[in-house]
Amino acid sequence: MRKFLFLFTTLLFAMAGIAQETAQDTTKPALLFFIDPMKRMPDFEIDVKKEGTFVTGLPRAEFDPIRGFGVGGDVFLFFNKDKNDPFFEYTPYRHRVKGQFFIFQNGRVRYEMNYDAPYIFNSKWRLRVDAVLWEDPNAQYWGMGSNTLNPLSFVDQRTGQLRTWDKVDDYEENLGLAVQDEDGNYLTNFHENHMLQREQLYNLLGERIFMGGKLRFMFGYEALFTSFQSYGGKVAEEAFNLDGEEVDAVNTKTSVERDIADGIWEQYNLGGFNNSTDYLFTSMLAAALIYDTRDFEPDPSKGVFFEYSHEYSAPWLASNFDFNKFMIQGQYFKTLARWGENKTNRLTFAGMASFGYVFGPNINFIEMWDLSSQAEAGGIMVLGGDRSIRGFREARFMAPTVGLINLELRTRLYEFDALKQHFSLGLTPFYDAGTVWDSPSKMTFANWKGAPGIGGRLGWNQSTILRLDFARSSEGSQVFFGFSHIF
Q1: Which of 238, 376, 382, 461 has its CA 20 to 30 A from that of 329?
Q2: Mind spelling out the 3-state secondary structure of the chain?
Q3: Which of 215, 217, 298 is nearest to 41 (CA)?
Q4: What is Dmax (Cα atoms) for the chain?
């Protein structure tokens, strides 16, 4: 597998003329343009930075309360060149290719390929290319608007009375119960908050630096193909009557169907739920202005990151939709303490605040699912899940206007070398908080949702960060395993 990835990527670079640029020099030439010294990696990071071409990644297994047991893996192919490269001290890598495959017990499948090249051709430009394909039989929909901040509410299948539910597990157990209608047929709400999602995403992004690398302007194009189907009227995979016996039951109308029928989507100018296997096309132009003084992008020890990103979709781009979407975010990193023989162990504060807004006459509702960050493909899933408020289910709180805060204390406790690889171990206590509003004019400081947690971190050759997080909220707890810090 490694040989295949290496040969494939080398061929790709050769076809693009990049192979010549990746050849190692025997002497270290001067930079062709000014890069601010604050963008230089710390000396202790440079000392252990791995040279040449190498592969990292792991097969992995995880359990998702929504989708069950899953298996898959991530593979990263890095081209670092060597210490004679003038950019060696200023960038985590010269080229990175990422491949991902994952399949879950419920049938969710995800394929992803990414290519990232800072200072491509020794220039002030960076190139990113992304391709993501997935199918999820249990994509989440918990409602639309600021009322999603209210406690979980549904009819108690045992009493027939409307009630609220403190824990999401109890709420979902109640949904899975089947009751008989007047004709004796069993009905269930097992898929109340589920829909079948199919998606293909393709990104091509270019980025140019200014002010010695501190200021970056990004622009690009995104093609998104989506289709959705409801479970209303379909037989549930599993349902149990009030006596605990498994029965054949049909799903009633789901929450997404009811919200559309009740005119809630019309209030927000939403569309895109076609209840079909046919794809709808969202064609978007994207741009971002970024101010970045972080010293090491995958695992910063100091610096700030500010971004304004904007996406625009319209019929003249052959899109089925017409909307604007923007996000403002700020990140701050400061190392509070260092210790150890070479002062490489550290305690670093990391904080992020984000604000996003989607508006227009015809919005693809899936655009409500993420904040529009162009610094990383795919944006930031909100609100809930493994990259926003980790203690709540993904997409638990959703509206056109979103606020999110993440606070972390990242500790690097121990470093070691094994099998010619460099590793570091650390712990990261964190606190996530966020809220949604129906529009910017209705923003208040009330009704924020927060969740604390703690995570383990394994750094692998610096550029690869493995993350294991446990978070707990008022509605329950969740565990996530993945790659890279959430910001």
Answers
A1: 461
A2: CHHHHHHHHHHHHHHHCCHHHHCCCCCCCCCCCCCCHHHCCCHHHHHHCCCCEEEEEEEEEEEECCCEEEEEEEEEEEECCCCCCCCCCCCCCCEEEEEEEEEECCCCEEEEEEEEECCHHHCCEEEEEEEEEEEEEEEECCCCCHHHHCCEEEECCCCCCEEEECCHHHHHHHHCEEEECCCCCEEECCCCCEEEEEEEEEEEEEEEEEHHHCEEEEEEEEEEEEEEECCCCCECCCCECCCCCECCCEECCCHHHHHHHCCHHHHCCEECCCCCCCCEEEEEEEEEEEEECCCCCCCCCEEEEEEEEEEEECHHHCCCCEEEEEEEEEEEEEEEEEECCCCCEEEEEEEEEEEEEEEEEEEEHHHHHEECCCCCCCCEECCCCCCCCCCCCCCCCCCCEEEEEEEEEEEECEEEEECCEEEEEEEEEEEEEEEEECCHHHCCCCCCEEEEEEEEEEEECCCEEEEEEEEEECCEEEEEEEECCCC
A3: 298
A4: 84
**Distance between CA atoms of residues 111 and 310, nearest Å:** 26
Q: Which residues contact 433 (CB under 8 A, 6 or more apart)?
A: 389, 404, 405, 448, 449, 450, 451
Poorest-pLDDT segment among 22-26, 83-87, 306-310, 379-383: 22-26
Would you state the structure tokens that stand for residue 425, as one six-digit string?
A: 């171990």
CATH number of 2-143+193-230+273-483: 2.40.160.50
Angle at 276 between CA 270 and CA 281, to 5 degrees: 55
- Report pLDDT for 376: 56
- Which pLDDT band holds residue 316 (cuts at 50, 70, 90)? very high
pLDDT mean across residues, the chain:
87
Kindly list the domain boundaries of the chain, sorted by start residue: 2-143+193-230+273-483
CA 53 – CA 47 distance, rounded (Å): 17
What is the C-alpha separation between 115 and 97, in angstroms, rounded? Answer: 5
HSE-CB at 392 with a 13 A cutoff on CA atoms is 28
- Chain Cα centroid distance, residue 298: 15
344-394: pLDDT as tens digits: 899 999 999 999 999 999 999 999 888 876 655 457 888 998 889 999 998
Residue pair 179/157 in contact by the 8 Å Cβ criterion: yes
pLDDT at residue 400, rounded to an integer: 95
Question: Could you tell me the pTM of the whole model?
Answer: 0.84
Q: Does the pLDDT value for residue 188 go beyond 50?
A: yes
d(CA 244, CA 178): 9
